[in-house]
Amino acid sequence: MRAVCFIQEIKDADLTMRQQQLICRRALRKLLWPCAWEWIAQAGTEEQPISLRPGVAELMRAAATGEAEVLVITDVEHLYCSDAELQGFLMALLQNGVHTFSARSGRWVEPGGRHWMVMPGYDDAVE
After folding, report:
1. Number of alpha carbons in the 13 Å side-chain half-sphere of residue 86
2. HEC-encoded secondary structure of the chain
3. Is the pLDDT reported for residue 41 higher than 70?
4. CA 104, CA 8: separation in Å to the nearest integer?
5. C-alpha span between 113 and 124 (Å, rounded)
6. 3-8 and 35-41 strand pairing
């Protein structure tokens, strides 16, 4: 599976951008999914609808052309959007065959998404 990682920078967040990257990269290594690219939304963009954040147009283009099959996020909370907005975003990705994976929980985010196998060292402290 070719993956795209999403990292949302937030001032005074529980995780830094670097910590989010490490969590996502660790999951990608353990699942043996290559990362096509990382999408980083800078601090201040979390107030915008997710569809207007930097990188989303590129993500949707990559989804439509089959360049990406999985969007990897730290977890749903790090998308900083409402449930309704999240559901719309997930459905738009699914229409193009892109699934969304939460690196922290090891689960697909979309409804009915399954949990992956136990990942040794998955919950280790972030370096």
Report:
1. 15
2. CCEEEEEECCCCCCCCHHHHHHHHHHHHHHHCCCEEEEEEECCCHHHCCHHHCCCHHHHHHHHHCCCCCEEEECCHHHHCCCHHHHHHHHHHHHHCCCEEEECCCCEECCCCCCECCCCCCCCCCCC
3. yes
4. 14
5. 24
6. parallel
Q: What is the CA radius of gyration of the chain?
A: 14
pTM score of the predicted model = 0.83
Res 18: pLDDT: 92
Q: Give pLDDT, residue 57.
A: 82
Q: How far apart are CA 38 and CA 118, in angstroms?
A: 25
Pairwise CA distance, residues 87 & 62, whole Å: 19
pLDDT in tens, 69-121: 999 999 998 888 999 999 999 999 999 989 999 999 888 888 766 555 544 45
Say what the pLDDT of residue 120 is: 46
